[in-house]
Amino acid sequence: MSYTLAPALQTALFAHLGADSALSDLLGGAIYDAIPPAQPPATYVLIGMEEAFDRSDQTGHGVEHRLTISVVSNAAGFLAAKTIAARICEVLDAPALALSRGRLVGMWFDRAQARKIEGDQTRRIDLRFRARLEDD
Fold first, then answer.
1. Pairing relationship of beta strands 62-73 and 103-116 according to DSSP bridges
2. pLDDT tens digit string along 84-116?
3. For the chain, how many structural domains are there in total?
4. Nearest CA to 105 among 114, 115, 95, 117?
5. 3-state class of 112 per DSSP?
C-alpha cells in the first residue's frame, strides 16, 4: 500500500468536520489545510501533518495514517481552544467518513499537545489521530 488514500482521507475529514453544526458554531467554518493567508481568523482549525505506514497483509492492502489536526487561537487562555479540540475529538469518535476511495476501518485518538507560541498570544493544540484504511 502507498499514499494513494491520503487525498480521500483528507477530503472526507474536511467534509466531516465542516458538517458538524456545533463545531461550525465555534469556528464559523474556519477549517483549513494550509495556514490562512495574511489575516487568519482569530481561531481556526488546520488539517495538517501526517505520516502513513503500510499495513497490508494477506487479506488485502491497508495503510495507517497518523494525522495531526491543530486548533490555533489567539483568544486569552486555553479554554476556547480546548473547547474546540474537545468537540473535534467528539466528532471524530467512530466517524462514518465517506471516502471517495477505500474505506475507514477505524479512527483512534492518539495524543494531544497544548502550548503557547513563544513571544505571541497564540495558543495551539495539536491533536494526533490514527486512521486505519483499506483499499477496495
1. unpaired
2. 999 999 999 988 898 999 999 999 999 999 999
3. 1
4. 95
5. strand
3-state secondary structure of 22: helix
Residue 1 lies in a domain: no
**Residue-range definition of the domain harbouring residue 65:** 6-134
Spatial separation of the C-alpha atoms in residues 60 and 105, rounded to whole Å: 13
In the chain, the amino acid numbered 43 is: T
Distance CA 130, CA 132 (A): 7
Alpha carbons 27 and 84: distance in angstroms, whole number: 8
Q: Give the pLDDT confidence of 61-70 residue by residue, as tens digits.
A: 899 999 999 9
Q: What is the CATH number of the domain that holds 92?
A: 3.30.2000.30
Residue of 80, 88, 90 whose CA lies nearest to 17: 88
Q: What is the value of pTM for the model shown?
A: 0.91
DSSP 28: T
